[in-house]
Design a protein that fits this description.
Keywords: Membrane, Transmembrane, Transmembrane helix. The chain is mostly helical. It is built from three helices and no strands.
């Protein structure tokens, strides 16, 4: 598999940095990957839910399921907000623990 010279140069630079510092193997990199992955998952859930609620087929303003739709549209954003705040607290706790600070 051939790649561009710029990609090969960048990969070589990352390999040299890893050999010198071990940064890509540090514990903080694992925490950063987990936090980044969680943020991407939350963003994807937000996009999918906003597209689903934008559909006319889902917009039930009357009938037996109108209460369920109203509950989802009001509780959903609050739940996502709490999820993001919880993620920030856990991320801060994890990173403080890596630097020797307090934690749970």
């Amino acid at each position: 598999m051939s790649s561009s010279p710029a990609m090969q140069t960048g990969a070589a630079a990352v390999d040299r940095l890893e050999r010198k510092t071990g940064v890509s193997e540090a514990a903080i990199m694992r925490a950063v990957r987990v936090i980044g992955g969680a943020l991407i998952a939350i963003a994807m859930i937000t996009v999918v839910l906003s597209e689903v609620f934008a559909l006319d087929a889902v917009n039930v303003s009357s009938g037996p399921f109108s209460g369920v739709y109203d509950t989802l549209t009001t509780t959903g954003p609050a739940a996502l907000t709490l999820l993001v705040v919880g993620l920030i607290v856990l991320a801060a706790n994890n990173i403080m623990g890596l630097f020797g600070g307090g934690g749970f």
